[in-house]
Specification:
The chain is α/β, with parallel strands linked by helices and 281 residues long. The chain is 37% helix and 20% strand. The termini are far apart. The structure holds adenosine monophosphate (AMP). Adenosine monophosphate is lined by residues 29-30, 36-37, 39-40, 146-147, 149-150, 173, 175-176, 183-186.
């Protein structure tokens, strides 16, 4: 497995591979890998000859009061896991190599970025879109896999690819959960024992709303309130948002007539967790 640490070396290798007609698959991550990330690698592997995993804690997608410095990192462990998964190349650049000090070109998505996580994390998706575009230009992937765990991010990246004509196929990877239902996340590491137990309210509330939906409830005010009640019944849980939105446009929905996304962000102490589930009539 090759570990590549500079953007120039990555792009050079990618150009060589393209010249040889190899199909490149990319899984972008911020490291501190877990089964969710590994599942994306396995999915990408099915569709490519050369599997590239990027590990980069992208500073431009963190707000000034967010956890950039504290974000968990363990490159040695990540490298071992990538090796075990048969990854061909790990792209592990430093932030100083990825952004010029006076970088002044950014990518803003304007239809899907202003809701859900975009409201509580202004500038977040601008950082995400910009770094993903840069990764596409450096790794030159034919396909890239992103997780449904970050449902809004996934839809924004699909827009980015469509609207800027990136020749990259985006593949959606399903959410991987702990045995008790908590969606896997590098940030779960921050949780205390009691917060870890209480964090199950996200998954529990999504299950409850799915059951109500299966029983025929279609009014989103009723469904949303059930999620709110379920999360509020848990100590330490502070709702950032709970929304039921159209699966494609992310616009609010009153009565469910087509696919929607139930998306929530909940703070457990200082740790902000997100989760989501789709409902399809
Ligand atoms: P991150 O390292 O958190 O930036 O995530 C990198 C990629 O892994 C993103 O496409 C995420 O959506 C995806 N991902 C993170 N957690 C999970 C999970 N529990 N299941 C599936 N994909 C995930």
């Amino acid at each position: 497995m090759e570990v590549i640490k500079t953007p120039e070396a990555m792009q050079r290798r990618a150009l060589e591979l393209k010249r040889d007609g190899r199909v490149i698959g990319l899984v972008p991550t911020m490291g501190f890998l877990h089964e969710g990330h590994l599942s994306l690698m396995r999915l990408a592997r099915e569709h490519c000859d050369v599997l590239v995993v990027s590990i980069f804690v992208n500073p431009t997608q963190f707000g000034p009061n967010e956890d950039l410095e504290a974000y968990p990192r363990d490159f040695e462990r990540d490298e071992t896991l990538c090796g075990q998964e048969g990854v061909d190349m790990v792209f592990y650049p430093g932030a100083e190599n990825m952004y010029a000090g006076d970088a002044s070109v950014w990518i803003d998505e304007h239809a899907l970025s202003g809701v859900l996580c975009g409201t509580s994390r202004p500038g977040h998706f601008r950082g995400v879109c910009t770094v993903v575009a840069k990764l596409f230009n450096l790794v030159l992937p034919d396909l890239a896999v992103f997780g449904e765990k970050d449902a809004q991010q996934l839809r924004i990246i699909e827009r980015l690819v469509r609207d800027l004509n990136f020749p990259v196929e985006i593949i959606r990877g399903p959410i991987v959960r702990e045995p008790d239902g908590l969606a896997m996340s590098s940030r779960n590491k921050y949780l205390s024992e009691s917060q870890r137990k209480n964090a199950l309210c996200l998954w529990r509330s999504l299950r409850q709303v799915s059951e109500l939906f299966e029983q025929g409830e279609r009014e989103t005010t009723v469904l949303r309130q059930a999620v709110v009640d379920s999360v509020e019944s848990v100590s330490e849980a502070e709702i950032d948002y709970i929304e039921i939105v159209d699966d494609t446009s992310l616009a609010p929905v009153d009565e469910i007539k087509s696919a929607v996304l139930v998306a929530l962000a909940v703070k457990m102490g200082d740790t902000r967790l997100i989760d989501n589930a789709g409902l399809r009539p």
